[in-house]
Amino acid sequence: MILRLAGAAALALPAAAMAQDKGEPIFIPARYVPAEEIVVVGGGSLKPTDSNSVQSAAILRDLDPGLGTRIENRLRDEGGLAQFRRSDGRSAHPTSQGVTLRGLGGNASSRALITLDGVPQADPFGGWVAWSAYDSIRLGGIIVARGGGSGVDGPGALAGTIGLYSNMTDGVEASAAYGSRDSIDLSGSAGTRLGDGQVAIDGRYSRGEGFVPVVVGQRGAVDRAAPYEQGGLGVRLRFDAGADSRIEASLRGFSDRRDRGTDFSESRVDGVDASLRFLHQPGAGVQWLALAYLQLRDFDSGFASVAADRSSLAPALRQRVPATGLGARLELRPAVGGAFPLRLGVDWRRTAGRTQEDYMFAGLVPGRHRIAGGSSDTVGAFAEWTSGDARDGLLWTASARVDRWWLGAGYRFEANVAGPVITDAHFAARQGWEASGRAGLRWTAGPVAVRAALYRGWRLPTLNELYRPFRVGPDATAANELLRPERLWGGEVGADVTLGDVRLAVTFFRNRLENAIANVTLGTGPGTFPGVGFVAAGATYSQRQNLDAIDSKGIELSADAPLGPLTLRASYAFTDARVDAAGAASVLDGLRPAQVAKHSGSVSLSNRGAGPLGGFATLRYIGRQNEDDLGLQRLGDALTLDAGLSCRVSDAISLEARGENLFNALVGAAISSAGIVERATPRTLWVGARLSF
Predict the structure, then answer these.
(1) I need a surface site. Which of 33, 82, 140, 444 has the fewest CB within 10 A?
(2) In this predicted model, what pLDDT tens digit does every residue of 281-298 receive, in sequence order?
(3) What is the CATH number assigned to the segment(s) 2-692?
């Protein structure tokens, strides 16, 4: 079956591409592109500037939802972009889905800023990302901007910014697919004009019986398949509000149910997001944008304690995490000489949340209860000036930002369910100032553009890192209410070459992340340790600590080129990251950070033209990486193949078949202290149909 499907894809792609309309425009959300292409501005955006052209950036298109496709797996095509776990949102634990770039990983909180139409998306409490929430959205494109320091983006953009841009289209699109392990995937979107505006509704539902996460040979009686059920629904409105102005409103909700392949390991994530913005875009004078948004999250999860021979288990922890995110933004762009090179703005973001946990079970009855949480606020002001034209001659950009941050009084309360209080800790409020910014140049002469940038960024510790201890199996990690903000200093130089339809890019970078927050191993059980209590024999005790730094340097390569009727896209990153540590963490000095691969990349051939046949084939490679901070447990490298075929049977209907991990490669996602290996998605096949009119 593998050979037939892969062979059919290879044979069909050239024939399908012959029907491609070469005059078809390329639609992207926002960024400079050659003049012959059409720029479509994503939802909620003022007219894009060329400021990001001084850094390495990639534009992802072909983001149609449904038929088993997932946004997070599409992002894995980008060399150097890493999620904390190699497994996706069908089997990974929700708290392990942070994302980073350029080897700045080490824990599950995102060090890249994720935005949807300019609204930050990381979980308000933990900094992880609920990727399944975006699979139901009709996206027009994604911009992956590597490197931090953009004052416009704000705190959290240490490793870069991943901007998701929604797309409002007229008409109806729907898809239905059936896949391996009794999986179902249904998606749909509808949009229409509404007076002087537009309305769009997007939705998706997917579920499956899942696969057994533990690898063959290590499974026991307690191991079973890990089912999932996920869905989302959203509505967006856009309408005129006088000359050169419009109002946009968005409301969406999502639900995610999955477990980890054993009893007592179910997880649930429910979320509601709302945003309202006003945009004023005259041809002269002052353009401005006002935005307000709300995030509501409710996360519930269970953890099991599994016997060494995996023949029995018991509940170990039951956790619920309600969290709220609030924010607002105001941006001004005064006209200067008929253009808008200056951006001025202020923004505010508040996060609040708590964890409510039952643990130390006797049978099915918890013996202890914990509540821990707090709040954080950041208020920032920024300015950016971009002068010149990225298409010819010299362009330079400079941005600066200053932020005031507050950590509200945190708390951690622990008590025996039927007995005395164990811990009643209250942590003093803290506050401080942080600065960030970027300076960059881009010089274009004919087909060659040379660019360079220097930048500084920062990130505030999440409430999860500050206040919540946690366990993964028998291993325990203590929180640290004294964590300091992370600070990044970095720079890069690169070149872009455009020869007709061929585009090549190379970037050399060097980053230093000071005060990097990591889970530092401090001891091994059996024993009682501060902040977590008893740790069993052979299990590890860790604490979140600020390392002196993570130093990362490397090279990134990308290429886009037509190959006859096909389109080739390649992305590769070499990342050499090392820990700089002293004191209690000195044992980590010189080691590679956990969950960082030295080599990663992808090669893709595709045809998604207007002809009757289409298809794609994508090879992805991820190199070896350390599972733990001490480098004692290693996850092997992996090479996977995804491929698909489509056949348009009428103007409105097309049939598709696609496969994930067609080689059925073993992609290691995690290793426990007992040596139990968890795998990512095995071979998965889909067949389905799309409807569009």
Answers:
(1) 33
(2) 888 889 999 999 999 999
(3) 2.40.170.20
